[in-house]
Amino acid sequence: MTTAVIAEDEPMLRAQLRKRLAQAWPELTLVAEAENGEQAIEAIEAHRPDIAFLDIRMPVRTGLEVARAIDARTHVVFVTAYDEYAVAAFEEGAVDYVLKPVTAERLAKVVARLKTRVATPPLDLTALLARLSEREAASGPLRWIRASLGNTLQIFAVDDVLYFQAEDKYTKVVTGTSEALIKKPIKELYDELDAELFWQIHRATIVNLRAIAKVERDWRDQPVITLRDRPEKLIVSRTFAARFKTM
To answer: CA angle at residue 192 from 188 to 196, to 5 degrees?
Structure first.
């Protein structure tokens, strides 16, 4: 029996991969699913699967960090949105990968290779992981965000986002015309944004400076932001008010 773990933070994409695998490889037993890197490591340690399908960009621990941490007996298949550099690195290193959204044709090719490889030791990924990690570190600020909009997965250009706001376990992504939710915490998100364009104005809010129409002060002398394309106003907390003294 061949076993596998799927690690993907977006539920719709995780369900799609699960469905495609069931069609392409009915005999494969899915022993666990994870929605972040830490869960993926725990699942792999608990179940010792033959194969791990790892999303490269997951919360808590990335797919690259998971691949570096897991038992060398597990074959790794990276799941990623199209990235020319990463795809070239995978192909050069003969590493299996799946592009999002997952297509039946691409997955069928990966499954065919995996069926021949599971009986042999996994590839040594040390050099590849180091190369990709350097690329991730030098790739610059976040440019695109995948978010859930009802039952639909939507991709937003970061430049189009007016502000981000924490809501329970999620972060709300607000553009001029829509709102959506992502699971990435505000703190982690802020570290990935361009600090020259996105300012934190509250422990739960990050604003795009290009979206600001004006900054006024309320009766408490706290800055209040009026946005260009939204009716709501954003309050700047005292912790971050000093940044707006000259505005």
So the answer is: 120
